[in-house]
Amino acid sequence: MNVKIIGVGKLKEKYLKDGIAEYAKRLQKFAKFKVIEVPDEKAPEQLSQAQMDQVMAKEGERILSKIKDKEYVFALSIKGKERSSEELAAEIDKLALRGDSDLTFVIGGSLGLAPEVIARANTQISFGRFTLPHQLMRLVLTEQIYRAFMINQGSPYHK
Fold first, then answer.
1. Which residues contact 20 (CB under 8 A, 6 or more apart)?
2. Cα–Cα distance, 33 to 146 (Å, whole number)
3. How confident is the model at residue 91 (pLDDT cuts 50, 70, 90)?
4. Please, which pLDDT band fits residue 64 given cuts at 50, 70 and 90?
5. In the prediction, which pLDDT does 10 show?
């Protein structure tokens, strides 16, 4: 199985990089795992709606350029379906059994995801109604992907 996370912006904080690296190392026994960073679009603090749409569109183009046709795409969105860890594990297991072995999770920038990225996604997933920094979300998502594989293996990691 191939699992990747596409995230907007460069991860700068060492503690987040270290956490992701730890879970990436653990995931190696289950899947080929990678994180792809696409550049965020520089923008002034105060943006009009048209400027926000333009920023999201440019970031969206960069994201879409990293997604292949055969990939099953999860778009992280506050409007997505909330899943428990067990539900995500079952979904990943079902996809693997169905032959969908290339899973891609997409995390947008500070303005969210362009409509074109949402349209390309096979499903939208939400981690709740609260807002997390997109850099922190990479670590949370990586841990949840690892947790899903551990649940599917029957490991006591998930209690």
1. 11, 35, 138, 139, 142
2. 10
3. very high
4. very high
5. 93
Rounded Cα distance between 20 and 15, Å, is 9
In which element (H, E) is residue 107 found? strand 102-107
Place of tokens 């990479």: 138
Return the SS3 of 135. Answer: helix
Structure tokens at 78: 């506050």
Q: If you search the block for the tokens 């995931």, which residue do you land on? A: 27
Give the pLDDT confidence score for residue 98 in this predicted structure. 95
The Cα 48–Cα 151 span in angstroms is 44
CA distances from 22 to 53, 63, 107 (A): 35, 25, 20
**Distance between CA 156 and CA 159 in Å, rounded?**
6
Q: Span 130-148, mean pLDDT?
A: 93
Which backbone phi and psi does 54 adopt, to 5 degrees?
A: -65, -45
Q: Give how far Cα 110 sits from Cα of 41, 64, 124, Å.
A: 10, 17, 17
Distance CA 152, CA 159 (A): 13
Cβ atoms within 10 Å, residue 49: 7
Whole-number pLDDT of residue 140: 96
Residues pairing with 10 in the sheet: none
